[in-house]
Write a structure and sequence with these properties.
Rossmann fold
Length: 209
Amino acid sequence: MKKGKLVVIEGIYGSGKLAVNLAEKLRNALTSQGKEVYEIDSPDSGRAMLMGAQDLDCGWRYGLFRADFFYELASRARACSVIRDELQSGKIVLCKNFTLSSIAYARIKGHDWFREDLNCLEAGARGLNFGGEVSPDLTIYLDLDPAVAIEKLESRIEGFFTPDDIHQQAACFKEELSKLPKEKVGIISAAKSDEDIAAEALALIAKIV
């Protein structure tokens, strides 16, 4: 059986609804083409705050890691376990948020471990040296203007992120995307209509399936 493909949808805070709409349109379109599709999320570090665990510190030889780091690793490992199985069955997996979101979150939170330790441990969570590393065949980045994102988010970011954080997050995404193989990256302007975004994304997916 031909192995499936992992398509990751990334974007800054404020692009969540766009990502959900895109995933739905892609799922419907690909299914209508006779392809099997599986959709999944790879939860971000906000989970620790939602669970009230944001004040738990864990020792590490490079300093202290907030609990959100370990929740993210555990969530990523679980998501990749599912993704790996679905890929083996030949499905196209649509995943909202992945490694780049983790890097951007660590950067805007000012964590000094996001390079060496996040890279190594997050890769382990994705299965490197533990049954096969899961990595995207295609990363679709929804390029939303940070100013527009801030307007969309309004007061929801208060106490969590600042407008400067959103600008920094966007810059981090662009920097990390530039390091990936060009044939595995698609940057789509979020200013386009949902239909045009989906059409462009489908054209990108068609190149890898």
